[in-house]
What does this fold into?
Amino acid sequence: MENYYIKHNGYCPICEKNVLFTSKHFWLRDHFICPSCKSIPRERALFKAISEFFPNYKHLDIHESSPVNRGASLKLARECTNYDSSQYYPEITKGTKHPISRIRCEDLEDLSFPDNSFDIFITQDVMEHIFNPEKAFEEIARVLKPGGAHIFTVPLVNKQQRSQCRATKDEKGKINYLHDPEYHGNPVDPQGALVTMHWGYDIASYITEKTKCPTIIFMIDNIDLGIHAEYIDVLISWKI
Ligand SMILES: [Zn+2]
It folds into this structure.
Protein backbone atom coordinates (compact mmCIF):
# COMPACT_ATOMS: atom_id res chain seq x y z
CA MET A 1 0.00 0.00 0.00
CA GLU A 2 1.31 3.39 -0.96
CA ASN A 3 1.37 6.09 1.68
CA TYR A 4 -0.27 9.37 0.81
CA TYR A 5 0.02 12.55 2.85
CA ILE A 6 -3.27 13.79 1.43
CA LYS A 7 -5.95 12.72 -1.04
CA HIS A 8 -8.82 15.03 -1.86
CA ASN A 9 -11.69 14.71 -4.33
CA GLY A 10 -12.12 17.97 -6.21
CA TYR A 11 -12.37 19.72 -9.55
CA CYS A 12 -9.28 20.70 -11.50
CA PRO A 13 -9.73 24.15 -13.10
CA ILE A 14 -7.04 23.35 -15.67
CA CYS A 15 -8.23 20.03 -17.10
CA GLU A 16 -11.84 20.78 -16.10
CA LYS A 17 -12.45 17.33 -14.64
CA ASN A 18 -13.43 15.87 -11.28
CA VAL A 19 -10.18 14.36 -10.02
CA LEU A 20 -8.57 12.91 -6.91
CA PHE A 21 -5.82 15.38 -6.00
CA THR A 22 -3.02 13.54 -4.23
CA SER A 23 0.29 14.21 -2.54
CA LYS A 24 2.76 11.71 -1.14
CA HIS A 25 4.71 14.54 0.47
CA PHE A 26 3.86 17.16 3.09
CA TRP A 27 5.25 19.94 0.83
CA LEU A 28 2.06 20.40 -1.18
CA ARG A 29 3.47 23.27 -3.26
CA ASP A 30 5.43 20.85 -5.45
CA HIS A 31 3.62 17.56 -4.80
CA PHE A 32 -0.18 18.08 -4.60
CA ILE A 33 -0.81 17.01 -8.18
CA CYS A 34 -3.80 16.57 -10.43
CA PRO A 35 -3.44 13.00 -11.74
CA SER A 36 -4.96 14.04 -15.07
CA CYS A 37 -2.97 17.11 -16.18
CA LYS A 38 -0.09 16.79 -13.62
CA SER A 39 -0.58 20.42 -12.56
CA ILE A 40 0.52 21.63 -9.12
CA PRO A 41 -1.32 24.14 -6.87
CA ARG A 42 0.37 27.34 -8.04
CA GLU A 43 -0.40 26.47 -11.69
CA ARG A 44 -4.08 25.97 -10.85
CA ALA A 45 -4.07 29.28 -8.92
CA LEU A 46 -2.47 31.07 -11.87
CA PHE A 47 -5.02 29.70 -14.31
CA LYS A 48 -7.89 30.61 -11.98
CA ALA A 49 -6.60 34.19 -11.83
CA ILE A 50 -6.28 34.38 -15.63
CA SER A 51 -9.79 33.04 -16.22
CA GLU A 52 -11.37 35.26 -13.54
CA PHE A 53 -9.69 38.55 -14.49
CA PHE A 54 -9.58 37.88 -18.25
CA PRO A 55 -12.55 35.58 -19.01
CA ASN A 56 -12.00 36.11 -22.75
CA TYR A 57 -8.37 34.90 -22.45
CA LYS A 58 -8.76 32.45 -25.36
CA HIS A 59 -8.95 35.38 -27.80
CA LEU A 60 -6.20 37.55 -26.31
CA ASP A 61 -2.55 38.08 -27.27
CA ILE A 62 -0.64 36.11 -24.65
CA HIS A 63 3.08 35.60 -24.16
CA GLU A 64 4.61 33.27 -21.60
CA SER A 65 8.26 33.36 -20.64
CA SER A 66 9.74 29.98 -19.65
CA PRO A 67 6.61 27.80 -19.79
CA VAL A 68 6.52 24.31 -18.34
CA ASN A 69 5.41 21.21 -20.19
CA ARG A 70 2.20 20.65 -18.24
CA GLY A 71 -0.72 22.35 -16.52
CA ALA A 72 -1.56 25.97 -17.30
CA SER A 73 1.14 26.42 -19.98
CA LEU A 74 -0.10 23.49 -22.07
CA LYS A 75 -3.75 24.48 -21.60
CA LEU A 76 -3.11 28.05 -22.77
CA ALA A 77 -1.02 26.85 -25.72
CA ARG A 78 -3.84 24.51 -26.72
CA GLU A 79 -6.81 26.84 -26.19
CA CYS A 80 -5.56 30.30 -27.13
CA THR A 81 -5.32 31.42 -30.72
CA ASN A 82 -2.60 33.97 -30.02
CA TYR A 83 -0.43 32.31 -27.37
CA ASP A 84 3.32 32.15 -27.82
CA SER A 85 6.22 31.47 -25.51
CA SER A 86 9.95 31.95 -25.17
CA GLN A 87 12.90 30.71 -23.16
CA TYR A 88 16.12 32.42 -22.21
CA TYR A 89 19.16 30.90 -23.91
CA PRO A 90 22.23 33.04 -23.17
CA GLU A 91 24.01 31.84 -26.35
CA ILE A 92 21.14 32.58 -28.78
CA THR A 93 20.35 35.98 -30.37
CA LYS A 94 17.25 37.51 -28.80
CA GLY A 95 14.12 37.29 -30.93
CA THR A 96 15.44 34.34 -32.95
CA LYS A 97 14.57 30.68 -32.58
CA HIS A 98 16.77 28.07 -30.95
CA PRO A 99 18.11 25.87 -33.80
CA ILE A 100 17.04 22.61 -32.15
CA SER A 101 14.06 23.34 -29.89
CA ARG A 102 12.66 26.00 -32.32
CA ILE A 103 11.64 28.01 -29.25
CA ARG A 104 12.04 31.79 -29.45
CA CYS A 105 14.81 33.24 -27.30
CA GLU A 106 13.95 36.23 -25.10
CA ASP A 107 15.73 37.96 -22.24
CA LEU A 108 13.23 39.43 -19.77
CA GLU A 109 15.63 42.30 -19.06
CA ASP A 110 15.79 43.24 -22.75
CA LEU A 111 12.73 41.96 -24.67
CA SER A 112 12.79 42.18 -28.47
CA PHE A 113 9.02 42.77 -28.79
CA PRO A 114 7.60 46.17 -29.77
CA ASP A 115 5.75 48.29 -27.19
CA ASN A 116 2.08 47.41 -26.53
CA SER A 117 2.26 43.85 -27.92
CA PHE A 118 0.36 41.69 -25.42
CA ASP A 119 -2.84 41.54 -23.39
CA ILE A 120 -1.35 39.08 -20.92
CA PHE A 121 2.29 38.35 -20.10
CA ILE A 122 2.82 35.23 -17.98
CA THR A 123 5.73 34.10 -15.86
CA GLN A 124 5.63 31.17 -13.48
CA ASP A 125 8.30 31.11 -10.76
CA VAL A 126 10.73 33.11 -12.89
CA MET A 127 10.99 36.51 -11.18
CA GLU A 128 13.04 35.11 -8.28
CA HIS A 129 15.83 34.27 -10.75
CA ILE A 130 16.29 37.67 -12.41
CA PHE A 131 19.45 39.72 -11.78
CA ASN A 132 17.83 43.05 -12.62
CA PRO A 133 14.16 42.71 -11.64
CA GLU A 134 13.52 46.44 -12.03
CA LYS A 135 14.53 46.21 -15.70
CA ALA A 136 12.50 43.02 -16.22
CA PHE A 137 9.32 44.51 -14.72
CA GLU A 138 9.83 47.67 -16.81
CA GLU A 139 10.30 45.61 -19.97
CA ILE A 140 7.20 43.51 -19.32
CA ALA A 141 5.18 46.71 -18.69
CA ARG A 142 6.53 48.17 -21.94
CA VAL A 143 5.38 45.24 -24.08
CA LEU A 144 1.92 45.07 -22.45
CA LYS A 145 -0.97 46.85 -24.15
CA PRO A 146 -2.80 49.42 -22.01
CA GLY A 147 -5.32 47.40 -19.99
CA GLY A 148 -3.11 44.31 -20.23
CA ALA A 149 -1.51 42.59 -17.27
CA HIS A 150 1.52 40.67 -16.15
CA ILE A 151 0.03 37.66 -14.35
CA PHE A 152 2.59 35.61 -12.51
CA THR A 153 3.56 33.39 -9.64
CA VAL A 154 6.68 33.91 -7.57
CA PRO A 155 7.36 32.42 -4.15
CA LEU A 156 6.91 35.23 -1.61
CA VAL A 157 9.12 33.41 0.87
CA ASN A 158 9.92 36.53 2.89
CA LYS A 159 6.21 37.23 3.49
CA GLN A 160 6.04 40.36 5.74
CA GLN A 161 9.84 40.73 5.79
CA ARG A 162 11.41 43.03 3.24
CA SER A 163 12.41 41.52 -0.09
CA GLN A 164 16.09 40.59 -0.14
CA CYS A 165 18.57 40.48 -3.00
CA ARG A 166 20.61 37.24 -2.89
CA ALA A 167 23.00 37.73 -5.82
CA THR A 168 23.98 40.43 -8.30
CA LYS A 169 25.85 40.43 -11.62
CA ASP A 170 28.42 43.06 -12.62
CA GLU A 171 28.99 44.52 -16.13
CA LYS A 172 31.49 41.75 -16.93
CA GLY A 173 28.93 39.07 -16.07
CA LYS A 174 30.58 38.11 -12.80
CA ILE A 175 28.11 36.98 -10.13
CA ASN A 176 28.45 38.36 -6.63
CA TYR A 177 26.84 36.11 -4.05
CA LEU A 178 25.44 38.13 -1.16
CA HIS A 179 24.20 34.98 0.60
CA ASP A 180 24.67 31.22 0.25
CA PRO A 181 23.67 30.30 -3.32
CA GLU A 182 20.31 28.58 -3.72
CA TYR A 183 19.10 26.90 -6.93
CA HIS A 184 15.73 25.81 -8.29
CA GLY A 185 15.07 23.32 -11.09
CA ASN A 186 15.37 24.78 -14.59
CA PRO A 187 13.91 22.96 -17.60
CA VAL A 188 16.53 24.40 -19.98
CA ASP A 189 19.60 24.18 -17.72
CA PRO A 190 20.53 21.03 -15.78
CA GLN A 191 22.60 23.14 -13.36
CA GLY A 192 19.40 24.78 -12.14
CA ALA A 193 18.49 28.44 -11.81
CA LEU A 194 20.17 30.62 -9.20
CA VAL A 195 17.77 32.35 -6.82
CA THR A 196 18.60 36.07 -7.00
CA MET A 197 15.71 37.41 -4.89
CA HIS A 198 13.78 36.37 -1.84
CA TRP A 199 10.61 38.36 -2.41
CA GLY A 200 8.17 39.44 0.28
CA TYR A 201 4.74 41.07 0.09
CA ASP A 202 6.46 44.40 -0.58
CA ILE A 203 6.96 43.16 -4.17
CA ALA A 204 3.57 44.70 -5.09
CA SER A 205 4.69 48.19 -3.99
CA TYR A 206 8.09 47.63 -5.61
CA ILE A 207 6.51 46.91 -9.02
CA THR A 208 4.09 49.84 -8.78
CA GLU A 209 6.92 52.19 -7.81
CA LYS A 210 9.18 51.04 -10.66
CA THR A 211 6.60 50.67 -13.45
CA LYS A 212 3.52 52.72 -12.39
CA CYS A 213 1.50 49.49 -12.85
CA PRO A 214 -0.97 48.93 -9.99
CA THR A 215 -0.26 45.45 -8.65
CA ILE A 216 -2.21 43.12 -6.42
CA ILE A 217 -1.38 39.88 -4.66
CA PHE A 218 -4.24 37.46 -5.28
CA MET A 219 -4.35 34.66 -2.72
CA ILE A 220 -6.66 31.69 -3.26
CA ASP A 221 -7.06 28.85 -0.78
CA ASN A 222 -9.60 26.36 -2.10
CA ILE A 223 -8.75 22.71 -1.57
CA ASP A 224 -11.76 21.64 -3.68
CA LEU A 225 -9.94 23.18 -6.66
CA GLY A 226 -6.63 21.70 -5.52
CA ILE A 227 -5.43 25.22 -4.75
CA HIS A 228 -3.96 24.75 -1.30
CA ALA A 229 -0.25 25.06 -0.43
CA GLU A 230 2.40 27.50 0.79
CA TYR A 231 3.58 30.31 -1.51
CA ILE A 232 0.93 30.07 -4.24
CA ASP A 233 0.05 33.77 -4.41
CA VAL A 234 -0.66 35.09 -7.89
CA LEU A 235 0.43 38.61 -8.76
CA ILE A 236 -1.46 40.74 -11.23
CA SER A 237 0.14 43.93 -12.45
CA TRP A 238 -1.93 46.09 -14.80
CA LYS A 239 -0.69 48.53 -17.38
CA ILE A 240 -2.99 51.52 -17.17
ZN1 LIG B 1 -5.94 18.78 -13.95
Remarks:
- The longest strand covers residues 144-153.
- The pocket of zinc ion is lined by residues 12, 14-15, 19, 34, 36-37, 39 (CB under 6 Å).
